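Researcher: Sequence recovery benchmark, item below. Answer with residues only.
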């Protein structure tokens, strides 16, 4: 029988963090899982380390040539065979009980399309920079329309990065591929598509770690984040799943500006710390 949960890890040049990411996926208290690592032709030793693994629960797929990140993420999702699916970025971490807790949430709420938990923010050295983050203003069962609207107004992804969410596999596969138009928002753009099928079930415990560093994907896209969010927001409003009043539009613009400034300050501190 196929496993209940697929944990898929797309990676490109993931050393040294990918080792801890894979360990966090394997060491879950809930063990009816498979772990699939999709290596995008890494050149930093990731491929060699993955080939050295002997755990039968880990299946590695190796690309011969590097593909766009969105294509690697898409193939990772499509490789999963479980009823539920979690995508884990190669520099992030899962807490011990997140998979089991989110399985129970999706079973408790059979109409829910996504389960989400809070996460902490860590830096490149694993030091906690923010103890709890996400799901601001959400209820235990938040309609997809309401969840998307709250993200648009907040100017950010309130559900969190992929480590903090779990999908019903059939639903996330239906909305593949991962979009490439807004690299910074590729996760939230997919959430928005999946949330059209049903609500978000929330667990307000902190259950994953999102790593932010001077060399992370988020850092490389820092100068584009505000513009990409604005473009994606207009795209979503044009689809008319949600609408914003004039007041909400103004509030959304102010929030986006504030969050953009906050991110720049954070990354400036991180880069400065790395240089010391």
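Model:
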């Amino acid at each position: 029988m196929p496993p209940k949960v697929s944990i898929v890890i797309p990676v490109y040049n993931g050393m040294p963090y990918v080792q801890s990411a894979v360990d966090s996926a394997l060491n879950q208290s809930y063990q009816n899982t498979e772990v699939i690592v999709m290596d995008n032709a890494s050149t930093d030793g990731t491929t060699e380390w993955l080939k050295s693994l002997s755990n039968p629960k880990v299946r590695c797929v190796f690309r011969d040539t590097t593909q766009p990140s969105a294509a690697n993420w898409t193939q990772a999702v499509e490789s999963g065979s479980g009823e539920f699916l979690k995508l884990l970025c190669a520099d992030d971490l899962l807490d011990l009980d997140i998979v089991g807790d989110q399985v129970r949430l999706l079973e408790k709420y059979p109409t829910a399309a996504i389960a989400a938990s809070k996460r902490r923010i860590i830096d490149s050295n694993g030091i906690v920079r923010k103890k709890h983050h996400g799901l601001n203003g959400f209820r235990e069962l938040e309609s997809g329309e309401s969840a998307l609207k709250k993200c648009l107004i907040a100017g950010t992804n309130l559900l969190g990065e992929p480590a903090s969410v779990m999908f019903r596999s059939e639903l996330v596969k239906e909305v593949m591929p991962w979009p490439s138009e807004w690299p910074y928002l590729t996760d939230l753009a997919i959430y928005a598509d999946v949330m059209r099928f049903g609500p978000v079930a929330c667990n307000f415990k902190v259950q994953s770690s999102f790593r932010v560093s001077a060399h992370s994907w988020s850092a490389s896209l820092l100068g584009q984040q505000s513009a990409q969010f604005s473009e994606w927001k207009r795209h979503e409003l044009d689809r008319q799943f949600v609408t914003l009043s004039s007041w909400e539009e103004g509030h959304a613009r102010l929030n986006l500006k504030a969050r953009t400034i906050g991110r720049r300050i954070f990354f400036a501190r991180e880069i400065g710390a790395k240089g010391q």
